[in-house]
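Chain A, query sequence.
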Amino acid sequence: MEPLTPIYEIAEEFSENTSRSLFLTGKAGTGKTTFLRNLRRHTQKQIAVVAPTGVAAINAGGVTIHSFFQLPFTPFVPTDAGRKNLIKKIKMTNVRRKVMQQLEILVIDEISMVRADLLDAVDTVLRHFRYRNDVPFGGVQVIFIGDLYQLPPVVVAEEWELISQYYKSPFFFDSYAVQQQPPVYIELDKIFRQSNADFVQLLNEVRNNRLTDKGFRMLQSRYNPGFKLSEHPDFIFLTTHNATANRINKEEMDKLPGKTFRYEATIHGDFPEKMYPNDPVLELKEGAKVMFIANDNGFPRRYFNGRIGIVTHLDESHIFVHCDDDEDEISVSNEIWENIHYGVNRETGQIEENELGTYIHFPLRLAWAITIHKSQGLTFDKAVIDAAYAFSSGQVYVALSRCRSLEGIVLTSPIRRDSLATEPSVVAYSQSKPSTAQLSSQLVEAKEQYELKLIQSAFDFQFAKGQIAQLQSLIKKHTDVFNPEGIEHAQALQKDILEMQSISERFQNQLAGVFHDEVRLSERLNAATAYFTERLDDLCERCCHSPAAIFDLDVTKDYKEDLKTLFTELSLKKHLISNICDNRTAEGYYRIKNRFRVPTFTFKAIDLFEKEEKPKKKRARKTKEEKGEKEPKKPSYMLTLELYQSGKSMEEIAEERQLAVSTIGQHLTRCVGMKLLDIHEFVDDALVLEIRKMAAAGGTVSDIFSAFEGNVDYIQIRMALAGDSTE
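Chain A, predicted structure.
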């Protein structure tokens, strides 16, 4: 591929260094698939890829929209009642819920085929399970990839009769979510598939339904009704219907002499039939025309998706194919397709791909004929096109644009002008495309907004607020199986989290006001870090010490899972806030986020109901002397004190306990205040006196830190002040 274009690089910058959603489009052959592949490989964000059909999802390396979001196949009505009804129908596992909550980029490939109501259903699910009903897609950056001039959404008449009351058109851009927050429109402009200027111009005319007389004559010049496919083995036949493609392939196979060899796919685990990339039983003879349906990952690259060849030799386990422009035949190896499932890594809390099943087969299909629909995304040197019965706008354009040149096209039926109809709504939406200069200007502003947003997000407890509400909802639903102490514990957690979020919202507004003032920004961040890490440390400890006793096993499991999710979120926030002062760029933010490891979560609630169901044999009670008194659990700060007294540094203790250094500093500061440690182990006498003098004069911790110009840190300042009462 040639060097990347400026517009391609702008698209990469928007996806990686802003939070703006994108509509990435472009004519056939402009590199949309390459963009997606590079994004999946290099992004530092948590990403998931979905597509409207099983085959499209496999080709994109993702999953189907309906599977990922657990959506029904019925139309979605974008009303309050419709949204409530949808959420009631969805059976969301804890793993899927966590994936939704961690998601940062959602890529929707082949967006031209995604209906507006389906997209609003996706929006509804993300808002609900991310506890962000105030923003489209629950705050997830969405990248829509596709060409609206190609295959459109499938709309059954009776379904459109229902949803047309709410939508101007079935296309994604008329969804409520996109109308509320329009994506940045980026059109890739460099065509890599075709090079002839006249042919490129012709394709543009077909695409935009503006076929000139010259263009029409060019198309009609390729009309050859007497063309015999059997006499031209290097051509592939593109048709509108599966039945036609299957009939042609069978007829041509039957004409070949020799033995038929059968090759069966090996399928492991869960791999649904609708996702099979080719026939699970591949029947071939020597002389069969085949098409590769995967890219060769070896070197040198022997084949690519869409390359045509002829089978030259077969045996029970081997297939050899020769392609026109190669001297040597290709020994074809099995390809592995994966059916993936998105999960969350228990240690890092980040999204990961898990393999549900595999489909192992030779990457070939018979290629005398295929449907135009299945040709989308492929490239051919020579093709015979029968588009007389094109049944959707875009089919003719898709077929023509598969070819590298006009000379490589043969038409078995003349192109009718009425088959080139373009949806007026698509044309109107395309006119909103900004210029490169406008995109560059938007990018500068969006990158700056993104850095502020990342800093603010570290102090945003909206998700924790939603999660504790989820916990309270569980308790309210099953009040009769909870002890009063467990109920009160959750209520106290909710009260403190709501208070913390309220303070955080005011602080986030302050950050926006001082974002361009480096000194004031540092002061505010340092002060906030001290305040919020102390509160988060307390909340995390309380999550691990629930006094709940629950008389139901299933409720116990749900309660534990919800409490652990809350604990993980609070721990992540503590980790981010503790390090955000020195990592204020997007790169720095993701560097510290990727270092996060979920701390150990303990839960000691008792399932009393289960104990009653499964009574144990009675044993003679031991006296207190016989069994010994149970030692009370040591406070966290005492564990830190013991490690410090054993000779370990604060950094070593933080690493061993999987806590932030600032948290260890808070523990030791507490010990100084309790006279368990001597302040002079940390700060010399002169500095202690000076710090206390400045504090007595009304100086804040931030004022004192600034006055010492980096010669003391915040932990030392707080220790000096904590130890004031000991002197």
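The longest strand covers residues 351-361. The two ends are 73 Å apart (CA to CA).
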